[in-house]
């Protein structure tokens, strides 16, 4: 009898890939789902799902296909979004249930604000499930009046972590050999690309993760943690915009711990680093992962505050910049910076690279990329120019507030 296939559920969509297993973290050494620019050999041994399914009254069944050593179960698109993607046994008052409610509400809030600002574009919605449990809602607004492309996705995942991945992620050596580790993960992720070169791109992502090993499995205690962040990627620097954005992030952090903003701001600068260019993707914000060294209720409130801060942090900037006159040179520079965005996502974003290597759903994997980008050979902005100032700030991160 062949051994059972170990599985890991991962909605793959570049920076919209909400979850990705990684073997290390800036803060701790435990199995995690998050964004990490480094690669892990153990990932090639995982079974990967591109999406999820609702366990209640499932419509159809997933088709299993194999790419090299990785199996992929395709999602089932459904005509109407369900009230919940949680399994029936979940307590409505649990952290899982409350986090799902939060990301559903945040998706509605953000999409509503973006549609109102755009005025012309509307989000296309795809809801999907998978037989293994869970589901998701993908929303994309493309080629609107303000937005070139805007994606806002949520996912709820049930899966199983292979024992070799769990062991590889543990910092302390142990003789114990855990079996497959059940996990739950949920999150919201978004990338927003405006048309106007003076209006910045925004990315945000907030997620919650639990492992919950069976009682008879040694060496794999239950764990949980939160992760996420919000960061700004402009093509031109308007200090009032960047200060406003960082001020909103700091306000959200300071409500819970004054150490959060400086700690997570540096983490963000370090994370969104394009190593081969020696520059950051943008002007930062906040980023954190593996966060579980505080009260769970407090961290749920913190993640909620951060998600709710997206609209007040971003919409006022867009209102100021969306109609700013620009010329072909401004647009060409925006396209060059979009090229950097593409480079980071395709080279360093683990969700993107893993999805491409394992034959995932290409529309989901690449949804975070802009419609247009540009590369010029050996392009160098004139020193002292507005373009040079942006590049300098990406090479040398600044304290904006």
Describe the structure.
- It is found in: Plastid, Chloroplast.
- GO terms for molecular function: coproporphyrinogen oxidase activity.
- This protein is an alpha+beta fold.
- The chain has a single domain, classed as Coproporphyrinogen III oxidase, aerobic (oxygen-dependent coproporphyrinogen oxidase).
- Helix content is 32%, strand content 24%.
- The chain is built from ten helices and 16 strands.
- The chain has helices at residues 95-118, 163-169, 239-254, 260-271, 296-308, 310-321, 328-348, 350-357, 362-365, 386-395; strands spanning 7-9, 21-22, 32-33, 47-49, 64-67, 70-73, 76-78, 124-129, 134-142, 147-161, 181-194, 201-211, 223-233, 273-274, 279-280, 285-291.
- An eight-stranded antiparallel beta sheet has the order 7-8-9-10-11-12-13-16.
- Strand 11 and strand 12 form a beta hairpin.
- Helix 1 (95-118) runs parallel beside helix 5 (296-308).
- The chain is globular, with a radius of gyration of 21 Å.
- It starts with 6 loop residues before the first strand and ends in a 6-residue tail after the last helix.
- Mean pLDDT is 80; it is low at 1-72 and 168-173.
């Amino acid at each position: 009898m062949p051994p059972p296939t170990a599985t890991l559920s991962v909605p793959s969509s570049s920076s919209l890939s909400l979850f990705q297993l990684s073997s290390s973290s800036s803060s701790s050494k435990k199995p995690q789902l998050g964004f990490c620019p480094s690669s892990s050999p153990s990932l090639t041994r995982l079974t990967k799902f591109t999406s999820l399914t609702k366990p209640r009254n499932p419509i159809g069944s997933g088709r299993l296909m194999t790419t090299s050593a990785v199996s992929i179960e395709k999602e089932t698109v459904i005509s109407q979004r369900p009230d919940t993607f949680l399994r029936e046994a979940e307590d409505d008052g649990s952290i899982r249930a409350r986090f799902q409610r939060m990301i559903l509400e945040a998706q509605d809030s953000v999409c509503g604000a973006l549609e109102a600002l755009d005025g012309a574009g509307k989000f296309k919605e795809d809801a999907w499930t998978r037989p293994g449990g869970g589901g998701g809602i993908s929303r994309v607004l493309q080629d609107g009046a303000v937005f070139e492309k805007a994606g806002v996705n949520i996912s709820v995942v049930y899966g199983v972590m292979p024992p070799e991945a769990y062991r590889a992620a543990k910092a302390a050596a142990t003789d114990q050999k855990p079996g497959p580790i059940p996990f739950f993960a949920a999150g919201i992720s978004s990338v927003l690309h405006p048309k106007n070169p003076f209006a910045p791109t925004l990315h945000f992502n907030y997620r919650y993760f639990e492992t919950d090993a069976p009682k008879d499995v040694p060496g794999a205690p239950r764990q949980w943690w939160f992760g996420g962040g919000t960061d700004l990627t402009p093509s031109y620097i308007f200090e009032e915009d960047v200060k406003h954005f960082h001020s909103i992030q700091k306000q959200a952090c300071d409500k819970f711990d004054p150490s959060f903003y400086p700690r997570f701001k540096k983490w963000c600068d370090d994370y969104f680093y394009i190593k081969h260019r020696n520059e950051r993707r943008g002007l930062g914000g906040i980023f954190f992962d593996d966060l579980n060294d505080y009260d769970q209720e407090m961290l749920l409130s913190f993640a909620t505050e951060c998600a709710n801060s997206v609209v007040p942090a971003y919409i006022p900037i867009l209102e100021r910049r969306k109609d700013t006159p620009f010329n072909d040179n401004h647009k060409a520079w925006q396209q060059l910076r979009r090229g950097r965005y593409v480079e980071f996502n395709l080279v360093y974003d683990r969700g993107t690279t893993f999805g491409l290597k394992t034959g995932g759903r290409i529309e989901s994997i690449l949804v975070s990329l802009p419609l247009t980008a540009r590369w010029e050979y050996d392009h160098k902005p004139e020193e002292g120019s507005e373009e040079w100032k942006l590049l300098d700030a990406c090479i040398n991160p600044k304290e904006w507030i």
